[in-house]
Amino acid sequence: MAMTRKQQRGALIGAGLGALGLAAGLVLYALSDTITFFYTPSDVVEKGVQPGTRFRLGGLVEDGSIIRGQGKTVSFKVTDTAGTLPVTYVGILPDLFREGQGVIAEGMLDAGGSFKADTVLAKHDENYMPREVADALKEKGMWKHGDGAAKEGTQ
Amino acid sequence: MIPEIGQFALILAFVTAIYQFSVPMYGAWRGDSRLMAVAPPAAMLQFGLIALSFACLTMSYIASDFSVQNVFQNSHSDKPLIYKISGVWGNHEGSMLLWVMVLALFGSAVAAFGGNLPPSLKARVIAVQGSISVAFLSFILLTSNPFNRLDPAPIEGQGLNPILQDPALAIHPPLLYCGYVGLSIAFSFAVAALIEGKVDAAWARWVRPWTLAAWMFLTAGIMLGSWWAYYELGWGGWWFWDPVENASFMPWLIATALLHSAIVVEKRNALKVWTILLAILAFSLSLVGTFLVRSGVLTSVHAFAVDPARGVYVLGILCVFIGGALALYAWRAPTIKTGGLFAPISREGALVVNNLLLTAACAAVFIGTLYPLVLESITGDKISVGPPYFNLTFGPLILPLLLLVPLGPLMSWKRADMWAAAQRLWVAALIALVVGVAALAWQWRGPWLAPFGAALGAWLIAASVQEMVARTKFTSVPLNVAWARLKGLPGAAWGMMIAHAGVGVMVIGVVGITAWKQEIVTVMKPGEVMQVGSRSVTFLGESPISGPNYTADRGRFSISSGGVEVSEIWSEKRVFKPSNQPTTEVGIEPFIDGDLYVVLGDRAPDNARTIRFYFHPLVWMIWLGTALMFLGGCCSLFDRRYRVGAPKKAKTPIIQPAE
Fold it and tell me: What is d(CA B553, CA B507) in angstroms, rounded to the nearest whole number?
C-alpha cells in the first residue's frame, strides 16, 4: 500500500478537510445553541425576553436596593435608569459588589418577572466596569466621563 | 537619574534592534559574511540594553520612587519587597518591557548557542528576531513609556491590586512571557527558512528544543495562572474558558502540535511545509493573545488599561507580522521540497492525526474567543460564549486524540500495523476498563461521561507505564539488566512517556473537579457543623486580624473525619489599606481524595456568616499532571541528540566520551 506523492498529498488534504469540516460543524452547532445574550433592564422589556431564556443582565446596582439577611438569598435591583429589574441570587456575592456599581448577572427570568441569577460576575478591581455595562450606560447617556477614564492606567 | 538611564538604554536598544534587523538581513542577501557576523553581538547588546532598562525600572520600584508615574500608579511604600518587584510587571508598561526583554533574551541565546548553524540561516534568524524587537520597542517608546515622570512627585503610591499580591502571580507573567515569546524563535526560524528556501533535519533539530522550551514555560505559566484562579478568586474552579485564558491556551495547543510535527521533519524529513506553517501560527497566536490582553478589547484583570491608541498599534504590529509571514509562506513554501513518503497508518500518520485534531481544537477555541468581538462590531449584539460552547466543540475534538495517544508511539515509521499496536496495549485497556467500572461504582450518580473520562486517564497512564516496561523487558530479564536498559533509554523516550502519562493524570483530575464536585452554600453560626463529603466541618467563629498592608476578619473552621479532628483551616475577608479594596482568602485543606475548600461570605444576623463549601475530588491530579507534562518536556529537552547529535562543523573533531 505504498502511496505515490500525489496520493499522499491527496490523503493529507482529505484528512485536513475532514477535520476542518468536523470542527466547523461542531462550532456552528454550538454557536447556535450555547451563546448567551447581554441585555440591560430596558432591553429586557423592549425585546420581550421570555422567562426561561438564559441571558446576561447588566447595569448598575440600584442604591438602597440590596436586601441581605434572608438566609442564603440576596436580592437587589439592577438599573440602567430607563428600566429596573429585581434580581435574586443564592450564594456569596463578589467582594467588589456594591450599590451604585456596575454588575453583570447571568441567569433567567422567572414567571413573576424577576431575574434569578446563578452567577454574579466578580470584578477584579475597584475601578473596573464591565465593558458591556459601560457601553450600555454610555448609550443611555448615564456614563459620567471620568468614572472609568480618570483611573486609566491604574489597572 | 536612574529612570533617565533606563529611558536612554531603551532608546539605544531600539536603535540597536534596527541595526540587528537590517544589516545581517542585507548581509545574508548579499552573501557578505562580515555583515552577517554583526548579528550575534547586536543581539547581545540589545539584550544588555533592555536588561539595563528593566533593572532601572526595578530599582525605581524598590526605592519607591513615586516621581515615576508608573511606580506611583502601581506601587506603595508599605508593600512587601517581593510585590514591589513583581509590581514591575503587574502593569501594562512594565509587562511590555518584560516582554521585549524576554524576546531579546531568546535572540541573544540563539546568538550565543547558534555556533553550529549555517551562517546565513543564523544571520536571518537573528535579524527576524530583531525586527520583532523593533516593533515592540517602538510600541513601548511611543505609547507606553514606563519612565514618564511626575512633577511634583506624589508622596505615596496608589498600590498594586491586592489580588495580584501573591507569590504564584509574581512568577506567572514571566513564565508565560517566556512561553509566548519563546515561540518567536520558532517563528524566526520559519521565516528564515522560507527566505532561504531550505528546510532539513538540522533545521528541525534546532527548532524543536526551542519550541519545547517555550512549550514548557507556557505549560508552567498557564498552570500557575490556573492554580492562582483556583485558590485566589474563590469561585471554586480552575478553568473558566475566559478569553484571556484562551489567549494563552491557543498558542499552547499549536505549540503542542508543532512539537510533534517537528519530530517528523527531524526523523523523516516529511511534513516540512506544514511544520513551517505551525511555527508561524504558534507565534501569531501569541501576538493575537498579546493584542487581546493588551488592547483593552477584553476587560479583565489582565487588561490593564483601555487605551485605543495602544490597541491600534498592537493591531498594526499584528497585521504586519502575521500578514507578512503568511504572505511569505504563500510565496515561498511551494519551493520547499517535500520529503519522505509514508502510509496513512504509520507513526507519521499518527502524528498527522495529532496535528489535525489539535489545530481543529485550537480553531474552535479561536472562533469561540473572537466571535463575540466580531459579532458586536458587525451587528452591535452583545453576547458571551461560555463553557457550554467549549464543552461542545473542544471536547469532541480532543477526546478522540486522547484515546489515540497511546497508539502513536507503538506505530513504526513509514508503515505500521494498527492491529498489532492495539494488541500490545491489552493490559492498559484492561486497566482502563477496571478503572472505568470502579469510577462508575464509586460515583454512579455523576454524569455518564465521567467514568469514561476516568478510564481514559487510566488508559493514558497505563499505556505509558506499559510502554516503559516493554522497552526495558522488565518482566523477562534480570532486574539489573532491566535497570541498565531503563537508564539507557533516550531522554526523548522518557519525556514522551512521562508527558503522556501526565496528560492522563490531568484528565482524571479534570473529571474529578468537573463531574464529582460538591458545592454547599449555607448560613452558619459559630459552633454549627456542616457535613461536606465524608468529613464534617465546624465553624469555630471569627476574629479580627491585621496583616502587613491589610486588616481582616478571619473565620476559623475545624475539620473532622469519623469524629476525630484532623485539621483546622481559615478563610479571611481582607480589606487592603491603600485602596480599601476588599478581597477574600479561601481556606483549602488538601486530602488525598480531594480538596476541602471553604469561602467565608457576607455577615448574616446573629453573628452568623454565609459560607460556601466545596469538595473538589482529585483536584491535585490536575496540578500533578501538568507538572509531569513539564517534567516530560525537561527530559526530552536534555536528550543527548540535542547536545552531541546536532551537526557540527567538521573542523572540530567530535570524539567526545559518551557521558
Answer: 37
The answer to whether the CB of B563 falls within 8 A of the CB of B534 is no
- The pTM score is 0.90
What chain A residue is nearest to B93 in terms of C-alpha separation?
A153
Strands A67-70 and A36-39: unpaired
Taking Cα atoms as reference points, which of A135, A111, A131, A150 lies closest to residue B243?
A131
First CA to last CA distance, chain B: 51
Q: In this predicted model, what pLDDT tens digit does every residue of B32-73 receive, in sequence order?
A: 999 999 999 999 999 999 999 999 999 999 999 999 999 998
Q: Which three cell numbers stand for residue B289?
A: 493573545
Alpha-carbon distance B312 to B289, whole Å?
14
Could you tell me if B154 lies within 8 Å of chain A, comparing CB atoms?
Answer: no
In order of A25, B589, B618, the CA distances from B592 in angstroms are: 41, 10, 7
Strand duo A84-90 + A115-120: pairing? parallel
Q: Which residues contact A24 (CB under 8 A, 6 or more apart)?
A: none
Give per-residue pLDDT as tens, A8-35.
778 888 888 888 888 888 888 888 888 8
B551, pLDDT greater than 80: yes
Q: How many CB atoms lie within 10 A of CB A23?
A: 23
| Cell 511534513, residue located | B271
Residue B149 pairs in a beta bridge with B68
- Do A26 and B163 lie within an 8 Å CB cutoff? no
Q: Do B388 and A30 touch (CB under 8 A)?
A: yes
Shortest CB distance from B360 goes to which of A20, A34, A154? A20
